[in-house]
Amino acid sequence: MSDRLQWIEEGVFEVAAGVHRIPLPLPMDGLRAVNVYAIEAADGLVLIDSGWALANSRAQLERSLAKIGAGLPDVRRFLVTHLHRDHYTQAVALNRELGIPVALGAEERHSIELLLRPDFRGLSGQIAQLTLAGGQAVVRELTEVSGGALQKPGAEFGYGPPSEWITGGQVFDLGNRTLRAVSTPGHTRGHLVFADAEAGLLFAGDHVLPHITPSIGFEQAPGALPLRDYLDSLTVVRQLPDMALLPAHGPPTPSSHARIDELISHHDDRLAAMAAVFSGADQLTAYQVAQEIPWTSRKRKLGEMDPMNKMLAICETAYHLDLLVARQAMTAEVTEGVRRYQLVRPVG
Q1: What's the whole-model pTM score?
Q2: In this predicted model, what pLDDT tens digit does every residue of 279-296 receive, in sequence order?
Q3: Scanning 63, 97, 152, 186, which has the fewest C-beta atoms within 10 Å of its C-beta?
Q4: 304 or 348, which is more confident?
């Protein structure tokens, strides 16, 4: 296993006094694992995130807790950074079975309510975004490979309401340490990070990742400008004291600030690259722009990607173009159900 993937190995890894990183498996090729952080509190354990509600994930969590002399009954609370399945659904399952309280960001309520509606069907929000972006061909690909998953209701994906909604700035007294929830919308509308300022630890969820760039606005009810929200959130966390980065995917690193600076620079470059696509064009859709720019560190073309990653790329492209519209560098109009963008060119 390459050094870059060592972090996914099963085990319990103490990242600070009384704080243990527990990687749990994921059923996908790209993200191989998710980090759950078990914090020794005065009366038991508090877990940051929970993993995906899968049998092998639960078994590995139980094995890992046993290595620190604990079990699921010792978990007093889940503090969940955001609503994605790999962070939230195992907490929902354990809440139903064992009554362990689950706390989630209050702004995730918008998507949770849609997910739990009886008429909800999988990826309905993303399909609407793809259609608006001119990506009907990718909608057809998703439908073909989904195996009926697009017709499943949200409850079948493991979703349910939390026990508690968290607001930004809320403080959690664990008896021997204090965590403060910091609102960081962008990756999702209600994403939170948890800061232990005294210990210099930032439980960052998917807001700041060491090796990959977090997706933007992958949810049923994204905000109006998810990329603007994300960049603003990076600035908020950058203004905090520099802390050790404890990410959901990837190994811990000593400086959250260093990675935040890289992420801001990355999005500046992407905005410039997307604007450059319009140099010889009039109106373009987000789908057309996504076809013209490289993706991932391997500089892949959109057509080389699987349907799910095509969907993420096209939606992210639309969010970048929408931010350029908000900055008055572009205009946009919807014709025949598709949003088309045009660069604002200097006069004279």
Answers
A1: 0.95
A2: 877 899 999 999 999 998
A3: 97
A4: 304
